[in-house]
Specification:
Rossmann fold; Arc Repressor Mutant, subunit A
Length: 211
């Protein structure tokens, strides 16, 4: 069971999302918040697995709340779910630690799949938003190694991460075990000085744009 916290300043939106999510017995909505400040307090109290975070809200917006949650509660993942596809929001949310960015018109089945992937530690970026994500400078801005310093296999895996592939999907594509993929991912993050798969995806997308 994946425990969810819904964060949106519109009560009607929260009610609709809760009703939809209830239809999947692998998901449980454990709380709701109307702004980022309340969201932080509820994460501390309820320890949800995934926070579905809106961007524009009163008191504290979703980007600031995402940063606080990711810093204070690393076990909780944040998946931004909003109507705004502004490049600034996309890049800032990912830089502050969000594990994904989706629009509210995402089909329900795709949203559920994204929640599951994010809970497992994968990055989920909505269709048409990748080109906006690559505008974000990687953190840290100067990785200790260039991507060309990775092995050919590591470069293949990094590109698949950028496409949103899970470890299982990467293993199937490359005909290797999931354990081998996990070892490669750990090595990639370590060698490039990156924190997580989201940063790795941004670095790969940015490099692809420059080439």
């Amino acid at each position: 069971m994946i425990r969810l916290l819904l964060v949106d300043d519109q009560d009607l939106i929260r009610r609709g999302m809760k009703a939809l999510l209830k239809s999947d017995d692998t998901l449980q909505v454990v709380g709701e918040a109307a702004n980022g400040q309340d969201a932080i307090a509820l994460v501390a109290a309820l320890t949800p697995d995934v926070v579905l975070m809106d961007v524009r809200m009163p008191v504290m917006d979703g980007v600031a709340a995402t940063q606080a949650i990711c810093q204070q509660f690393p076990g909780t993942k944040v998946l931004v779910l909003t109507t705004f596809d502004d490049q600034e929001y996309v890049t800032q949310a990912l830089q502050k630690g969000a594990s994904g960015y989706l629009l509210k018109d995402t089909p329900f089945e795709e949203l559920v799949q994204a929640i599951r992937f994010v809970q497992k530690g994968y990055t989920q970026i909505g269709p048409g938003l990748s080109h906006k994500a690559i505008a974000a400078p990687p953190v840290p801005p100067n990785p200790p190694l260039e991507l060309t310093d990775l092995t050919p296999r590591e470069q293949e895996i990094l590109q698949l991460i950028a496409q949103g592939s899970s470890n299982r999907e990467i293993a199937q594509v490359l005909f290797i075990s999931e354990k081998t993929v996990r070892n490669h991912v750990t090595n990639i993050l370590s060698r490039l000085g990156l924190r997580d798969r989201t940063q790795a995806a941004i670095v790969a997308l940015q490099k692809h744009r420059l080439n």
